[in-house]
Write a structure and sequence with these properties.
Layout (H helix, E strand, L loop, with lengths): L1 E7 L7 H6 L4 E8 L3 E2 L3 H10 L3 E7 L5 H11 L6 H6 E6 L11 H15 L4 E4 L1 H7 L12 E4 L18 E5 L9 E2 L3 E2 L1 E5 L3 H7 L30 H8 L8 H5 L5 E2 L2 E2 L11 H15 L4 E4 L4 H4 L16 E5 L5 H9 L5 E4 L21 E3 L2 E5 L4 E3 L4 E4 L9
Parallel strand pairs: 1-2, 2-4, 4-5, 5-6, 6-7, 7-8
Antiparallel strand pairs: 1-11, 2-3, 8-11, 9-10, 12-13, 14-15, 15-20, 16-18, 17-18, 19-20
Helix pairs in contact: 3-5
Length: 411
Amino acid sequence: MIDTIVDINHDNEIDFAKAQANGIVAIIHKASEGATFKDDGYRSRRDTAIGMGFLWGAYHFSSSRPSNDQVDNFLDAIQWGGDRARDKQTLICLDWEPSHSGPDMTLHQAEEFVLQVKDKTGRYPMIYGSNLISEGVGNSENKILKHCPLWYARYREKPIGIPVTTWDDYTLWQYTDGRDGPEPHSVPGMGGTDRNRFAGSTAQLKHRWPFASFGPAAAVDFVHSRETTPAVAPSPTPATFAALIASLGLRHFDADEILAPTFNTNAGVANSRPPQTLWKNILPTIFVLDEIRERGGVAISLNSTYRSKAYNTTLDGAAPKSQHLDFRAIDFNSSKMSPSKLAKIAEGMRGKKFTMPIAPLKLVSSQAPLFARNLKIKSSGGKTTFEFHGGIQDYNSFVHIDCRGQDVSWA
C-alpha cells in the first residue's frame, strides 16, 4: 500500500518540486463547484504538474444545483475535449459531500451527474465521499454508482463503513485531512494536507490511472442519454435468443449480458437489438470470449456487441463497416486485469480449434467483410468446430475481438 496521492484546491499551498522529491506521485485538484464556480488555480497547476510527470486528476465539488449545469461547469473548467492526450490521462471525480452553499446533492442528482459525465466523456467518474455515500447508497446495490471507482474518506485506522453491496472495496482511501486520522499528516512543501492511500505499488497506480476501465461495463444496466430519463429501457430478452445462447453451455455469460449494450444511447441516437438473421454471428465470438474469461480468471464486462448503423455513425472513430454492425464483435474490459493482458490471452488463442455443442452454424455478412472459409467451420453430430481467426485490438481502456475469419490488429 502506498500513500503518495494528495488532493488540493486553490487555497492549498504546494511546492511541486519538494512534494515530488518527498514521494508524492499523484495530485487530484478541485476544478469546479456547483453550477458556476471554477477554481482559478486549477489550469495553471495542472499544466505545471503534468509537465513535471505527476499523475493528475480533477474533482467537482457537488451542490444541489441541476446536475446538467454542474456537469457542464466541470467539463468546461477542465477543458474536456480540448486536448485528447491530456483528457486520456486525467482522472475525473465527483466530490459528493455536504454542500458549501445550500442543500446537499441528492442520490438521484449524483446518479444523474455520473450518467451525464459518462455520456459526454465515455467514462464513469470516480466518486468521492463518506457519509453521504454510505447513507445514500445504504445496503442495496446501486446499479449506477457501482460503475464508479470509489474514493472513500474515513479518518480511522481502517476504512470502515464502505457500502459493500455496491463496492467490494475502495480504489483510493483518504485517510487524513492533514489533522485527523493516521499519520503522516503533512507533506514537505505543502504542510498538513489531505492524503490518500492506494492498495498497490507505484507501478500499479501508474498503470491503472486514471481508472477509466473500472468496474462493470456501462451497458450492464442501460446508459442514459443527455436527458434525465432513460433513452431506452431494457425489455425482456427474446426467449429464442436466450435459448440459443443457453445451448452453448457458456460458463460466464448469458443472453442478457450480450444484449445489454444494445440499449446504449449516444448523441441522442439509441442503439437497437440485432435482427434475428444475425444472431448466430455472435456465437463464435462469445464462445472465444468465454474461454478468455476462463483463462484470465477475472470478471469481464461487455461494453459493445451489436450496433445499428445509425448508432455506429455517432461514435468517434467507429469504422463505417464495423464488425459490430454484423453482430460479430465484442468490446470488453475488466476491473481486475489490464486490457493489454486480456488482449495477450486472446492473441494466444488465434488458430485454436473450438467445439460448440450446436449445429449447424451458418454466418452471414450484411455490412462488414466476412472470411468464413478461414474459420474452417464444420458441423456434424450436433456439434460445430471452428478455428479462431479475427480482429484483436487493445484500446487501452478496453479490448476488441471479432471472428471475421482474418487475423488483424490496427493502431
